[in-house]
## 1
Amino acid sequence: MKLINTVVPDLPLTILRDNQFVQANFSDYNRLVLVFYPQNFETTTITTLMKYSKQINRFTAQNIQVLAGSIESAFNIYAFNEQTKAKLDLFADKNAAISDYFGVNDKGKCIHGVVIIINQVIKFVGVGAELEPRVVLDLFEQLQ
């Protein structure tokens, strides 16, 4: 399925923000980076999220919001956040609707992926590779 330059469906999101669960939709965001990771509590996941957490001020300075998530329950994400204290909003995709849409669901487990959405239009989908935050910022700048 071709995703680039298509409007993202207004799927509901369960987001953990400041230790509180909130409901949102893709239409709530104008400049968004989605970061998909395999599973909570894995070393590579913690490393990836901490890299984004350390760079979050660079994203917010450009009015870019970052959401990181996986095919996990909201409560698993809450427990994971308690351990890592990452400064990122995390989303739970327990039913895998979001992961399926962006092609990162591999038999019930997320693979690494990054999606850039600008004004509800999908501009970039990278599946299967971890992208450093600085690379994502550069991509975002080029895609505007």
## 2
Amino acid sequence: MNDVAQWRHTHLKDIRMSTIQLCFSSAQRRRSMFSRLGLLALWIACANLLAGCANTSPPPGVEAVTPFDIQRYQGRWYELARLDHAFERGLMDVSATYIPQPDDSVRVVNRGFDLASDQWREAVGKAVFTGAPTTASLKVSFFGPFYGGYHVAALDADYRWALVVGPDRSYCWILARDKALAPYTKQAIVARAKALGIDIDAFIWVSHQSPQPAQESQP
């Protein structure tokens, strides 16, 4: 074999080996990618399953108010205090409007002023009673079939303020028809929350300074 033929033979062999290695490497990357996609799909499926099975019952030791009248509860409430959670972080001037629907569900419109973006944010959801509508235990969804518990644990006789607890004690709100409460009323509500095992020292007290958007109307 002459020098030219030897050179061609050697380099063709190198090219074939490189091609085989490249194909093998590509196959490995594809398998790795499909493996990661499979794990991701499994993770998403599990997350959706867990979300769909979210607890909608009151936390142990928390009882929902009964008797309860959704017609008296409807309308706008101002959020005066809350425990910290991601979906309201940075919001002030927060309100919640409840609108009973013909199918016995409740339209929920939450609004708050985002200090960082200097604009109003709004979330529209749906609430349904978990049992008899005379008991203030509901489940609320802002995203498809995924619900979370909403339980009115204390309520003013005239429906002027409400203490609401979520699926566990890390979710709690003080709502009122007015933007402020009398000091003795505020103290009494906080005492009720403490008796229920709520971390009252973690309450974020919400300021109300910006004019609210127009009242939500029946769609």
## 3
Amino acid sequence: MDELAAKLECHRDLRRDCVHIDMDAYFAAVEMRDDPRLRTVPMAVGSMAMLSTSNYIARRFGVRAAMPGFIAKKLCPQLELVHGNYDKYKRESAIFEAIFAEYDEDVSMGSLDEAYLELTAYVTSRTEPKTFVRRQYGGECICKLPLTAEEEATPSSVEVCKKCGKERKIYEDEVEFGTSRAEVFLSKYGNGFSWHSIDIKRKKEDRRRKKKGKEENKNP
């Protein structure tokens, strides 16, 4: 594997900037937006025959996309099933597509919640430093998930989430496109934007173990 990685590194071409966007639990997110009650209960979009997606509360019980609804009900008896409204999902997807087109007029939508963009022209046209804003919510915020690791970042402000009352810290990172600093930022934080809840849970558990280890070393 190391040998293969080395070969790929030799031929890596960083002259083009391409982005793949996959919206997380898209159908469920739209339904939870329209019915806030669904944000705090296990729910899935679909029918007893097949599920399209589920929210993260339902996933804790093993409920997954492409699972028959009757099996999901056995795993999670309190699961709320919402019938899909594909006309509504298409309308929302069109809004996202219009936004993506501002950055790449040839954006390719792989599905209602998936897009492929080439940002080469956009990135090369921006020579001024760009400030990235990252938000982290303290506790289990049901509105948004933590985006990135923030050990080395300094919070610039603290807010409170209006929907669930959780504390929200805002961090800022200034990155200049076309420089090595941009590559370092993406290599360090890029994968953080696609963390799933299980990854976040593991991250928290790792931090607790490290903190506990430091305390034990201080007090042998």
